[in-house]
Amino acid sequence: MRVNLTKQKAAVREYSAEMAKSFLGGRGFAAKILWDELKPGVDPLSPENRLVFAAGPLTGFALPSSGKLVVAAKSPLTGGYGDGNIGSHVAVQMRKAGYDAIIIEGKAEAPTVLLIQDGATEFLDAKELWGLNTFETEDNLRSIYGPTAGILEIGPAGENLVKFANIVCQKGRGGGRPGMGAVMGSKNLKAVVIIGSGDLPAAYSKDLKELGAETYREILTKPNYTFWKRQGTMMTIEWSQENSVLPTHNFNEGVFEDAEAIGGFSMEKIKSSQRGCPNCNMTCGNVVNDADRKESELDYENVAMLGSNIGVGDLKKVAALNRVADEFGLDTISLGNVIGFAMEASEKKLINEKIPWGGYKAAKALIKDIAYRKGLGEILSEGTHFAAEKFGSGSNSWAMHVKGLEISAYDCHAAPAMALAYGTSPIGAHHKDAWVISWEVKTGRERYSEEKVDKIIEFQRIRGGFFECATVCRLPWIELGFELEWYPKFLHAATGLETSWDELNRIADRVYALIRAFWVREYGKNWSRDLDYPPARWFEQPLTKGALKGAKLDKTKYEVMLNMYYKKRGWDGRGIPTKTTLEKLGLKDVAKQLKKSVRLWE
């Protein structure tokens, strides 16, 4: 479905079988649409930017953890390709309504709710919703459209175009951390409601049903299942502390003195319920009652970034900060970074504001100022990279981002593979594409090796490639050991296509090359391999605490690994896919456009 908010019109179009075979769905569709339809240099917050909601060929079926949706646009935070995924009823309802992707362009004259009910589309007045937080907005819409309607909304942060505003659903589920909420806000789009009543067609529906039933049972037998249900990703707090990778005080250190107080076992003591995405039997959203006596859904990333990274060692207070962030529609990873950056700037007296480490009340007040762009919040709302340029005094070296996107919750002073995974992530620093750090800790974190480069690419192909395109959750595989061999079987039953992992890896490589080409086209002469380096802090300032005291990254050895990565990807020394590589991947037109727009290979 194509939606033009300016004209208040919607039209349904079919896509080609060739697009499905070449890009699969989800992230693949989003990257292809944005490459084809955006003019180079378009303002991410202009009506011309596209906001894409894209499902995959497995989304919505009764298969393990298939309730996922990709949201994508040109990022206002990074200026490059931006996306995220959300576990939501929207994913299932969109597919039941008959759509694999919804492409939104233009800008509504006034705040609007986009309502899609099967083949009918309405543009509803949202003036009374504008200014409400995400929880209030969802309550209002759900009272009208019911408990199973798919609803995505933004909060005040998205309305005020905060560059790391995200899109929220189901009171605490968020996605699109490179500013997808700001893109939605720039279009005066307060919420999207989708209701579908159709059946999802499958090539072999009986086989698919049998596969789903068998694999749901299979997941229940996995050794780690029971403990996962107790803690979900919160178990990672203790693991990160033990292995000196828990981000502490703006990634100064890898251990936190109050780690136990914010860890998985402490969470279990105050846990009140659990939430999950549709079609999931390994739910990971742990709900606790926070310091304000409100419900807050916790996972590792938001607790580490709003806990140890800013020095808050009380889990109920961390939960309260997380709840406020969710209400405003702020990405908690970037938020924990900008607050940590502000606390360090305060400590170094680069700013007049007093924001001490562990200052819960100061942090809470700052979150509101960021959402409403007031005072210091006006600067921080633009992201860490912008704030460092504003503050100066060498703060760029401890502004913890890659390509403008703030780093997620793993310190890499002593983790070169994870540092390279952050450096080469297709959206900026994010763990989603290649969470290689657990493998690295097990196999030898001190080494800089070809084996590590191979593992990063392997994970990017599976996690950021297949799972983001299919579009299903990676957690059954990475956390419980659910076998990858099931997925080609799922695809065959759902679509009729015979696929192998070799072909799926090729699709992943095609998508990665296309996204990299998007970045290069947008940055033009400003593109540099330096954009693939992690922050200077990890190279220059060693850890001063814990078992790995004294550890820091070796820049020369990192460069060797980066060169290996480029060579294996078929990219040149600048990190740009070569003409030969693009043509081998079936992206001949992309090669022509790159040559024309940025005069490459001359």
Commentary on this structure:
The structure is a single chain. With 602 residues, this protein is an alpha+beta fold. Among the domains are: 2-195, 4-Layer Sandwich (Aldehyde Ferredoxin Oxidoreductase,  A, domain 1), CATH 3.60.9.10; 229-410, Aldehyde Ferredoxin Oxidoreductase Protein, subunit A, domain 2, CATH 1.10.569.10. The chain has 26 helices and 17 strands. The strands form five sheets. It has a six-stranded mixed beta sheet. Strands 8-7-12-9 form a four-stranded mixed beta sheet. α7 (205-220) packs antiparallel against α21 (486-495) and α19 crosses α22 (501-523). The radius of gyration is 22 Å and the shape is globular. The two termini are 40 Å apart.
Topology of this protein?
Elements: E1 2-4, E2 9-11, H1 17-23, H2 26-37, E3 51-54, E4 68-74, E5 81-87, H3 89-96, E6 101-105, E7 112-117, E8 120-125, H4 134-145, E9 150-153, H5 156-159, E10 167-169, E11 173-175, H6 180-186, E12 189-195, H7 205-220, H8 225-231, H9 236-242, H10 264-270, E13 271-275, E14 285-289, E15 295-298, H11 300-306, H12 315-328, H13 332-347, H14 360-371, H15 376-380, H16 384-391, E16 401-402, E17 405-406, H17 416-424, H18 437-443, H19 450-470, H20 475-480, H21 486-495, H22 501-523, H23 537-540, H24 555-569, H25 579-584, H26 588-598
Parallel strand pairs: 1-6, 7-12
Antiparallel strand pairs: 1-2, 3-4, 3-6, 4-5, 7-8, 9-12, 10-11, 13-14, 14-15, 16-17
Helix pairs in contact: 1-2, 2-19, 2-22, 7-21, 11-13, 12-14, 17-19, 19-22, 19-24, 22-26
